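A quick word before the example. In earlier lectures we treated sequence and structure as two separate objects. From today on, think of them as two lines of the same record. Here is HNH endonuclease written that way.
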Amino acid sequence: MANWLVTVDFDDFELDKAFEALPVIYWKNSTTNKDKGLQLNDIVYVYVTKPISKVMYQFKVIGHAEKSEYPLAQKVFWKDTTQLDSIKGYAIFEKLNKVDKSTLSFEYFRQENLIPDAPIQGRRTDRDKASNDPIRIFLTHIFNEFKTENVNSDYPDEANLENSLFPEGAKKTVQVNRYERNPEARAKCIEIHGTRCKICEMSFAETYGTFAKDFIHVHHITSLSEISDSYEVNPETDLLPVCPNCHAMLHRQENGIPMKVDRLKLLFEVSKNSK
Ligand SMILES: [Zn+2]
Ligand SMILES: [Zn+2]
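And the structure line, produced from the sequence above:
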């Protein structure tokens, strides 16, 4: 059994949506003599390129398929299916895990010298590599991070927090929570608004140092009543970076009324100025 790292650009292939919708994923297995291709029971990690720049998915190879066997259901997730024309065969992936951790980000890899100072592209495998090989060390780090995903997840409390506060709106709340955790929407929100809390102005980098610099929660502003089945999140107007303290307060009610961003900001300013 070997470990692999492959890359995907969400602008080419919407793996996030395919992961939710499909029972298995078909993946290019055009082999070169050098890498011998993806083999049964190999474990595959997927690195999502900019702006997310994180390893987020773990799969297991459970079979192979011919070019003609590529499922129609997966084609819809490609922006441009002509990319599939040159592919000769596929490996079939079973879904194992999806995580969102700062220890699996490009920033972290670079800080810890786990990769050279370059973009991550193409395919890497630890097959036949010595224990001190840089790629084996890198893939072992990724393997270990997936093993401990439940303990170290960056956003462990949001789901419980929200579900306990809105028991009757549970279904929609789970949906809203999903927007707040959606890596693509999160990345775009942070790209637009930065990582400073929009309520209290705190910055994790300023408070705790550079290791904390990409940490922030993302709050979904649109109210539950406005969420219909066709709703699409707009990262600029519907999402806001907030620290976990302010985030918790945004999900709290004031005399039975859901807290609004402007109201909380006002309360924060009033309280700060009265000190
Ligand atoms: Zn805050
Ligand atoms: Zn929120």
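Notice the following. The longest helix spans residues 134-147. We will return to this example when we discuss secondary structure assignment.
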